[in-house]
Amino acid sequence: DVITEHVLILSGDHIYKMDYRKMLHFHKSNDADCTIAVIQVPLEEASRFGIMNTRDDHSIYQFEEKPLHPKSNKASMGVYIFKWPCLKE
Questions:
Q1: Are 81 and 35 in contact (CB under 8 A)?
Q2: Cβ-contact 6, 23 below 8 angstroms
Q3: DSSP assignment string, 6-60
Q4: Backbone phi and psi for residue 76, each to the nearest 5 degrees, phi listed first
Q5: In this predicted model, what pLDDT tens digit does every residue of 33-72 receive, in sequence order?
């Protein structure tokens, strides 16, 4: 039997050229339940995206979908890694 530890989820409407191993390494190194890839966008354009509001340690305290007044410019790329047990719950 194969034991699944982590699950990578990608949006189906994008083409990605990304080394997911780096993201997985970050995820494991931080013992995170969930890791979300973000890209910094100009703040004046941030209201067009799902925006992550994070603490200094990169932990997410809020996800806002297309906020009228964004607090951050970190836009979700639609790339997620979850610990399998957390996702399964």
A1: yes
A2: no
A3: EEEEE-TT------HHHHHHHHHHTT-SEEEEEEE--GGGGGGSEEEEE-TTS-E
A4: -65, 135
A5: 999 999 999 999 999 999 999 999 888 999 999 999 999 9
Kindly tell me if the per-residue pLDDT of 16 is higher than 80: no
Amino acid at 40: Q
- Domain 6-88: which CATH number of 3.40.1620.10, 3.30.70.120, 3.90.550.10, 3.30.70.1230: 3.90.550.10
Q: What b/e sequence results for 52-64 when a residue is b if at least 16 CB atoms lie within 10 Å of its CB, and e otherwise?
A: bebeeeeebeeeb
Q: Residue ranges per domain, the chain?
A: 6-88
* Token pair of 25 as six digits: 């390494």
The pairing of beta strand 6-10 with beta strand 60-65: unpaired
